[in-house]
Amino acid sequence: MTVGDLHRGDTAVVKSFLGGLDSQSRFLEMGILPGVELRLVKIAPLGGTIELKVRDYYVSIRQQDALNIVIEN
Q: What's the pTM value of the predicted model, to 2 decimals?
């Protein structure tokens, strides 16, 4: 299951990442680490961005990048 499978308001724990080291390091810089809980706040229409609440701040990522974050509920 990935962040792309979540619906608005759902929470999950980050398990691992797919993709190359570039995308993984970008997630780590944003504070999206394995073991961290996140909540999907909103999804922009027409394939735009996804807003996540990670710890006490909000992060927006592209929907295609959300498919690279493996989660568990």
A: 0.90
Does the pLDDT of residue 5 top 90, yes or no? yes
CA distances from 70 to 13, 42, 48, 61, 66 (A): 9, 18, 20, 14, 9
pLDDT at 62 over 90: yes
CATH value at residue 21? 2.30.30.90
Distances (CA, A) of 22 to 26, 46, 66: 6, 25, 14
Residue 73: is its pLDDT beyond 90? Answer: no
The burial of 68, by beta-carbon neighbours within 10 Å (0-12 exposed, 13-18 middle, 19 or more buried), is given as: buried
* Residue 60 lies in domain: 3-72
Count of the separate structural domains present in the chain: 1
Give the span between the Cα atoms of 41 and 20, in whole angstroms.
Answer: 26
